[in-house]
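thought: fold this chain, then report.
action: predict
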Amino acid sequence: MKKDEIIYWVSTCIVAISLLISGAIYLIDPAIIESLHPDMGFPDYFKTQLGVCKILGGLAILLPKVPKKIKEFGYAGLTIVLFSACYTHIAIQDTLKDTITPLIIFGILVVSYVYGKKLEKV
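observation:
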């Protein structure tokens, strides 16, 4: 396996797994999120929507046979989710760790996207 492929798959797996787990928590037991961040105040329907979006986005970038357009929408959607998460943490004056974590995941998402594009050209 080439270096570019390894970087692509490691970065993609890190992002996808973190979002799949987070999305599953939103769907299975949103009370966990409420206990960690009581000031967010998301309504139940939004937690469900956010959980579904995280899972679909994570699967879109992770699965190799997904059509290119769907993958692009996955990356775009996850970008919006991650920047919205950062903004939410800033708005509720959350800890620095909780505020920058979505930005770190976004940075890894960018690495995944860039290396995915490199592999398309090969």
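thought: worth noting. The longest helix spans residues 3-28.
final: tokens above.
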